[in-house]
Specification:
The protein has about 375 residues and is an alpha/beta fold. It has helices spanning about 20-30, 45-55, 65, 70-85, 115-125, 130-150, 160-170, 210-230, 245, 260-265, 285-290, 300-305, 320-330, 335-350, 355-365; strands at about 5-10, 35-40, 90, 110-115, 155-160, 175-180, 200, 235, 255, 270-275, 295-300, 315, 380-384. The chain has 2 domains: about 5-180 and about 355-384, Glycogen Phosphorylase B (Rossmann fold); about 200-350, 3-Layer(aba) Sandwich (Rossmann fold).
């Protein structure tokens, strides 16, 4: 395949924390000329806030996209597009999409990742009265925004079939394809030793779905586990834990905050849990635990259409008593836990290694083109 000129536009620079763009773009840099425009550290100015407020009456403009408004970012994107005739403009997430000028959107491969309007609709019942109203309003804004976005681009990518269905519900002709999340199999790999009584839940804890899950885990699931396993220890590992989780710290419950070597932490646990009450897309926390050969107890919402083998890779439970019971099964039976862990690692190696998934992304890049050019260009990276 020919070497292409690709512009990546994202709400933040690719990094190991945002593993999907990080792994895909590292693979694409080996094949193509890739330039980046992203917000390195968002510090909005008064002009940004005023520009964002102009969108408030527009019921097809999400609040989260307004919150990410950056006039400097808009100028940087316009300069990059004017300076270079890119073959593909790769845009990550709804927060970055408005930075692309309307005239350039037919060159866009929009990696929406998730159907975000569906996520906010699912989340609303768990946010309290005031929060629920805000989430429902945002779900409506996002649905209208996503429908407009996916109708204006060359190709839409999402991480799962349920997200593809969500996008097609918004616009039936959506040019949407499923590209599953890759896993860093070197960072997330089996360890040499496990703590036989440690249970871990990972994720950015300021994210509403993780916060709701962690509160349910601490309040309703964990006391049942402790009743049968008094020495069991729970780790809530992830950046920016809110006060509601910090208040739940106890002798048997640790809230770690950001963990640099998350793979080692997961690989050292006896059980990984993903007690999400609602979810879209593919849950990296489940895949990463499987990659570490750590058996998983999760919910139907978190599994989605992932090829998770109930009883083979771990267990699925949707009520607190059943969830706690399945954690205890794995704490009680180390041989069962070991078999499930090895099966999970095998599954991730077969279905979520970066190589074959990068090939799929490359094909999407080339499908978009009529007459691709391979002339060399000078590399430039802009971090706003």
């Amino acid at each position: 395949m020919s070497r292409l000129r690709v512009l990546y536009i994202g709400p933040h620079p690719p990094s190991p924390i945002a593993v999907r763009p990080w792994l895909f773009l590292r693979a694409m840099e080996a094949r193509h000329q890739v330039d980046f425009v992203a917000v390195a550290q968002y510090r909005p100015r008064l002009a940004d806030r005023l520009a964002a407020l102009r969108h408030l009456p527009d019921r097809a403009y999400p609040l989260q996209t307004m919150a990410a408004e950056s006039l400097r970012m808009r100028r940087a994107v316009r300069r990059a597009i004017a300076r270079t005739e890119y073959d593909v403009i790769h845009v990550e997430h709804v927060r970055a999409f408005p930075f692309v000028p309307v005239a350039a959107r037919r060159r866009v491969l929009f990696d929406a990742v998730d159907c975000v309007s569906e996520l906010f609709a699912q989340a609303a019942p768990y946010q309290g009265a005031a929060g629920g109203w805000i989430f429902r309003q945002e779900a409506g804004r996002l649905a209208r925004f996503e429908a407009q976005a996916i109708s204006s681009v060359a190709r839409v990518l999402v991480a799962s079939r349920r997200d593809a269905a969500g996008m097609r519900a918004l616009w039936p002709q959506a040019p949407v394809s499923v590209l599953p999340n890759p896993v860093d199999l070197n960072r997330f790999r089996p360890g040499l030793q496990r703590s036989p009584n440690t249970v871990v839940f990972t994720g950015k804890m300021s994210f509403h779905a993780n916060r709701v899950a962690a509160e349910w885990l601490c309040d309703e699931i964990w006391p049942r586990v402790r009743a049968r396993h008094p020495v069991a220890r729970l780790l809530l590992a992830g950046a920016q834990p809110p006060r509601s989780l910090l208040r739940r710290r106890a002798g048997d419950v640790s809230v770690t905050g950001y963990v640099p070597d998350l793979g080692r932490l997961i690989a050292g646990a006896a059980v990984a849990v993903a007690p999400l009450r609602y979810a879209v897309g593919v849950q990296n926390k489940v895949l990463e635990a499987m990659a570490c050969a750590t058996p998983v107890v999760t919910t139907s919402a978190a599994v989605g259409d992932l090829g998770f083998d109930e009883g083979g890779h771990g267990f699925i439970a949707d009520d607190a008593a059943s969830f706690a019971e399945r954690i205890c099964w794995l704490l009680d039976d180390h041989q069962l836990a070991g078999r499930m862990g090895r099966a999970g690692r095998d599954y991730v190696e077969r279905h979520h290694a970066i190589g074959p998934l990068a090939d799929q992304l490359d094909r999407h890049y080339h499908e978009r083109l009529n007459t691709p050019s391979t002339r060399p260009i000078q590399r430039e990276v802009e971090a706003i």
